[in-house]
Amino acid sequence: MASTATGGGDGFSAADQPNLDLPSASVRVPSVVGELAAEFLGTFILILFGVGVVAQVVAGGIGDHDSIAWSWGLAVTLGIYVAGRISGAHLNPAVSVALALFQGFPWRKVAPYSIAQRAFVAALVVRWNYSEVIDKFDPGHTIKSQGIFSTLPGNGHAPVSAMGGLSDQIIGTAILVFLIFAITDARNSAPLANLTPFIVGLLVVGIGMAWATNAGYAINPARDLGPRLASFFTWYGGAFLDQYGGLYFWVPIVGPLIGAVAGGGVYRYGVQSYLPHAEPVTAS
């Protein structure tokens, strides 16, 4: 869902600044294979905690919406700590696209990163682990428990249409990307002491607490599509539909991509263009 680094553009980024507080002992240039492995594993952690908490609340009856919001925020933080030094921890195809458009991230890496951000495998782990509880809660694998894995308009019960879900995803992802850019811009007031993953996690908590009613705040195509596919291949025949019977799987893909471009563009041209340039460092 998030990124610890914005790359390129006309300014300095968090990735340009050596940060010895990061987990890696030394700064190094990772291979493309290393970057993709980091994106896969960071996304894996994201989904284990994120989809796992929804399964626990919905099927297990333990916890509430606040549990979901906080666990998703921690999931993002932990995923970034896993992947941040190696790949920048995008963990979200919409973030990768926005970074390529506005911050100089190489376009040639967008598709490989998006493929590596494969939430499908981690969702299968959650589905397997909670299979007994889910089967008891919803033996028919219906809309009643589908929301464990994928989002629905109005979370499956509020009176929200697919178009309402689409607009919600555009706004929510625009907020996410705008603030990721602000948090990770070294020319702005970037967090110090390796706190960026924690602050980005709090951002996701805030979005979950303020923007979850209309569409469940997927704000990440990988977060929704991967678990949706995992549920489809484990007997959720209606996984691609909403509670009204209409195709809905495209909404948390298209909405976040549009929102990421909007949020990234507003930051790039509304804030970043006016930031002071970093002063050159001179030897004393």
Give a written overview of the molecule.
- By secondary structure, the protein is mostly helical.
- It has a single domain, classed as Up-down Bundle (Glycerol uptake facilitator protein), CATH 1.20.1080.10.
- The chain is 56% helix and 0% strand.
- The chain has eleven helices and no strands.
- The protein has helices at 32-58, 65-87, 93-102, 110-116, 120-129, 131-137, 143-146, 162-184, 196-210, 221-232, 251-270.
- 50% of the residues are buried.
- The model is unreliable at 6-27 (pLDDT under 50).
Helix-strand blueprint:
Blueprint: H1 32-58, H2 65-87, H3 93-102, H4 110-116, H5 120-129, H6 131-137, H7 143-146, H8 162-184, H9 196-210, H10 221-232, H11 251-270
Give me some keywords for this one:
Glycerol uptake facilitator protein; 11 helices; single chain; mainly alpha; globular; about 280 residues
Question: Which range best describes the helical content: under 10%, 10-25%, 25-40%, 40-55%, 55-70% or over 70%?
Answer: 55-70%
Quaternary arrangement of the chains shown? single chain
* Spatial extent as radius of gyration: 19 Å
CATH architectural group: Up-down Bundle
Structural class label? mainly alpha
Average pLDDT rating: 90
Let me know the number of strands.
0
- What do we call the CATH homologous superfamily? Glycerol uptake facilitator protein
Outline the biggest β-sheet: none
In total, the number of domains comes to 1
Compressed to H and E, one letter per element, the order equals HHHHHHHHHHH
How many helices in DSSP terms? 11
